[in-house]
Design goal:
Elements (H helix, E strand, L loop, with lengths): L1 E2 L10 E15 L2 H13 L4 H24 L4 E12 L5 E13 L1
Parallel strand pairs: 1-3
Antiparallel strand pairs: 2-4, 3-4
Length: 106
Amino acid sequence: MIITTTPTIEGHSIREYKGLVSGEVIFGMNFLKDFGASLRDIFGGRTESYEKAMLEGRETAEREMRERAENMGANAIVGVSYGYETMGQSNGMIMISISGTAVVID
């Protein structure tokens, strides 16, 4: 399945629009990750534990969106965009959402 941020796919015609599809993931960051991130804030550098969690979250959200599109009979998703939001009482949770338009291409 082709998934793209563009509204069209070069070399393909959109034959049918199936509708909006999305995938969402909400996950909490644990104490050890938060502690490691706070040290990075003080000393500088990248926070690999957060980066890994964000990558896994994006992949899970994209997989959900792809499955929903396949269930609608689509073979591509166009106009995809990601969104990120902190949530929870102390912003200890992160929501990753992805959405796009499920289509049938030739």
